[in-house]
Amino acid sequence: MNQNLSQELDRESLNQLSKEQLVEIIIEQNRVIRELQKTILELQQEVERLKVSRDLDSKTSSKPPSGDILKKSENKKAPPQEESNQPKKKPGGQPGHQGKTRKGFGRIDRYEILRPTDCACCGHKAFADAAIKVEKQSVAQLVERPIEVVEYQRQTCVCECCGNIQTASWPDDIIPGQDLGTRLQAFLGWANNYAHMPYEKQQVLLWELGQIEIGLGTLIATNERIQTAIEPSIIELSNWVKQTQPNIHVDETPWSVKGTKEWLWVVANSEFCLFTAADTRSRAELEAILGTQYQGIIVSDDFSVYNGYQAFAQQKCLAHLRRHFKKLIQLPGLHNQAIGETFVSLIDEAFRSYGRWFQTLDSTSYNDWVNKFKSKLQSSIDQWIDQAGATAGQLLRSLRDKAHQWWYFLEHPEVPPDNNQAERSLRLAVTKRKVSGGSRSMERFQHTANLLTVVQTCRRQGRSVIDFFAQALIADSDNSQSCPSLLPQY
Asked: Which residue windows does the record flag with biased composition (Basic and acidic residues) (predicted)?
């Protein structure tokens, strides 16, 4: 801008200027005004963009629900005024909800007979042997010392029949030279990789349960020993995924490795969960995990790396699409609110109808709804695609051009319309990342991925993580034992 405009101009000074000078001043002022108007418009757009970014939460973006609490008010809300003719809904299970009742523990480890000792009436101690009434209550108790220290004395003896000198074998649940039994090591592996318990807290836990003191080095070595023991099972599962190529859910999350952002990938379905540590979020990593082409169905979000990947079929996550349209409602722009509300309503209808099919498996009603829904969906796209702005237009073109990926579940309801399977699998890993702060090397990052694979796969298959770790430790120390498998049993 012209620095001369910073000088103050009054009527007297302007009267002394020539006509040409006044014209020059007006032209320059007009130019400056246009530049300022352009700057103001850009700043207004930036403010609106920042407002939208500020107001994003887990319902309108991929932000985690844990961040929503920061947007909540510290002031208590006034209770809503209930309509007089509408009864207030009671907390707990609602009508029609299928409840669950505890049916006992399924076993009794010890019986304890409680008999009266002193008669409250006469003070005598003699009571009839047969009880006239017996009340039973099963209680789960924490025994005084869940961890016991056992000294095994292995003897070498001479056979009285043939004179052979023979040494007894060590029990299967211990490894010679190690201070902790296999099940206790397996329990610490579970505490580290599922309960996310730091080594210092594991030390406290061991003291509380058994009054034993274990050094940090022993705990670190135990976790590394478990990782080494499970490695053959991880390799077997990874190769099985590439060869069998089942229907899967795929997702990824960032992971800090020595201050650098790396990526943790997950491939999962209802029977297994495979985590892989990777440098990038690229197509090359996806092909390294699954191969250059995949004959199964892949369910994922709408990240670009999955576009064009050679798979039998893909289903993109409608929950992500719904968040995009929820965000669109808040964006300034022509028809954004109307478009966003229209397609949020359509996506909600799709989720409700899929949920009904999942509960009833009524294919006839479902197929009737699918035919009507396709017509309604196409009509909505045709109505708005030519009137949409840049952001809305991009979403609508994606719906039109990738309809076979967004709506694959309509013809194949056995494939869910969301990627919840993968996202729920990642929750354990995200908690681990937040507690630990990441990894110190890519090697340790992969070790963490392997341990999480065992934990989540065992949970999927209804198996004990502690039993799996213990079996893997025994197999690793004894070549005659086979390593436990994570492969699904169809």
From this structure: 51-60, 69-80
User: In the chain, how many domains are there?
Assistant: 2
The alpha carbon of 46 is separated from its chain's Cα centroid by a whole number of angstroms, namely 33
Name the amino acid, one letter, at 95. P
Q: Which residues pair with 166 in a beta bridge?
A: 157
Confidence at residue 64, expressed as pLDDT on a 0 to 100 scale = 67
**Over the stretch 183-221, which tens digit does the pLDDT of each residue have?**
999 999 999 999 999 999 999 999 999 999 999 999 999
State the pLDDT at residue 67: 66
Q: What digits encode the pLDDT tens for the residues 433-443?
A: 999 999 999 99
Q: What is the pLDDT of residue 1?
A: 46
* Residues in contact with 287: Cβ distance below 8 Å, sequence separation at least 6, in sequence order: 309
356 in the same domain as 427: no
Residues 389 and 266 in one domain: no
C-alpha 440/C-alpha 245 separation (Å) is 33
Tell me 475's DSSP state.
H
CA atoms within 13 A on the CB side of 186: 21
Q: What is the pLDDT of residues 111-162, one digit of tens each?
A: 999 999 999 998 888 899 899 999 999 898 888 889 999 999 999 999 999 9
Which residues pair with residue 255 across a beta bridge?
262
- Quick check: 2 pLDDT over 60? no
Residue 249 near residue 299, CB atoms below 8 Å: yes
User: Is residue 484 within 8 Å of 471, Cβ to Cβ?
Assistant: yes
The encoded tokens of residue 291 equal 């191969």
CA distance 115 to 113: 6
DSSP for residue 488: -
CA atoms of 365 and 352, how far apart (whole Å):
13
Domain end: 359, 382, 417, which one? 417
pLDDT digits (tens, 9 = 90+) for 85-98: 566 677 777 777 77
Closest CA relative to residue 367, chosen from 417, 412, 402: 412
* Mean pLDDT within 296-315: 94
Residues 303 and 343 placed together within one structural domain of the fold: no
Q: What is the helix, strand, coil percentage profile of the chain, to 5?
A: 50, 10, 40
Q: Are 297 and 330 within one domain?
A: no
Residue 250 in 3-state DSSP?
Answer: strand
Residue with tokens 């979020």: 281
What is d(CA 339, CA 14) in angstroms, rounded to the nearest whole number? 55
